Amino acid sequence: MQSSVFHKLLLLLPLAYQHTSNDAETKVTHWNYELHGENWGGTCASGVRQSPLQLAVQKSLIVPLPRIFFGNYDVKLRGPLTLENNGHSAHMDIPATTNGKRPYITGGLLKGRYVADGFHFHWGSPNQRGSEHSINKQRFDVELHIVHRNARYSDVNEAAKHKDGLAVIGVMFKIVKNPNRLFPGLNKVLAELPKIINYKDKSEISGSLSLGQMLGNLNPRDFFTYRGSLTTPECQEAVTWTVFSHILPISYSSVSRFWRLRDSEGHRLINNYRFTQPRNGRPVFYRTGKDLSGAYLGK
Ligand SMILES: [Zn+2]
């Protein structure tokens, strides 16, 4: 650790923690991305199966897992759909669909159904990429997280207390000059970013949106999956991660809208990613729909 970083860390500590007598654990009550998680404390510092990770096909167990099944992802969500600046990201709570059901996922390493609860993004800045996971040593410009809770638990907070509580899918976006594919759902969401520049700003997404429209033409057959944690305090080790290896295109102008957001202190909300974490011998599984020649087997 460089000494300048160390001094910065010492200065931040009193601001970052609040200890209360009726709370046995030290809790992070105020946090930011200045050190990308290195001063968050609690489970974030003491955990042994933390996220994000460096993912690589060569360091993964290639196994015949079931593909991810997306339930009600093609059904429009019931409005209002509100994108909010929560000080750490641009976030949307996911409501029920117009048929009164909830979007959910199952398959992969998951046992049972996991109900979609919310999505948010991680991004960089004009000179840094912002994805949390890396794939084959590469990081990407934006990472979308869709957070799901195990249907057996009543809400996300309850689910976060259990090992099998949460399932998050991660989708990577890379800036390309002229994205020849337009993703109308994602574009609708990104169009609201200029209206949520400041902390607690909210904006209603106009028109209709299904969760599947956030994923464009994502190939769901190829993914990494492992057991890890939330990447924000309290970093609970309750997450089964599924990170797709198909990288989606995004335009520079879309990504630059993220860089204009501000946090609760009025600072620029950029580079809101946590550093990658030690694997500690955990298995990472990789599922592919390809055979060894690279041809798709249709699975
Ligand atoms: Zn996230």
UniProtKB/TrEMBL annotation:
Pfam families linked to this entry: Carb_anhydrase (PF00194)
CC annotations in GO: cytoplasm
EC number from the UniProt entry: 4.2.1.1
PROSITE patterns reported for this sequence: ALPHA_CA_1, ALPHA_CA_2
Reactions this protein catalyses: hydrogencarbonate + H(+) = CO2 + H2O
Residue spans crossing the bilayer: none
Keywords: Lyase, Metal-binding, Signal, Zinc
Gene Ontology MF annotations: carbonate dehydratase activity; zinc ion binding
Domain Alpha-carbonic anhydrase: residue ranges: 29-288
Cofactor dependency: Zn(2+)
InterPro entries listed in its UniProt record: CA_dom, CA_dom_sf, Carbonic_anhydrase_a-class, Carbonic_anhydrase_a-class_CS
Entry superkingdom: Eukaryota
Signal peptide positions on this chain: 1-18
Family note: Belongs to the alpha-carbonic anhydrase family.
Protein task: Reversible hydration of carbon dioxide.
Protein name stated in the entry: Carbonic anhydrase
UniProt lineage: Eukaryota, Metazoa, Ecdysozoa, Arthropoda, Hexapoda
Gene label: CAH6
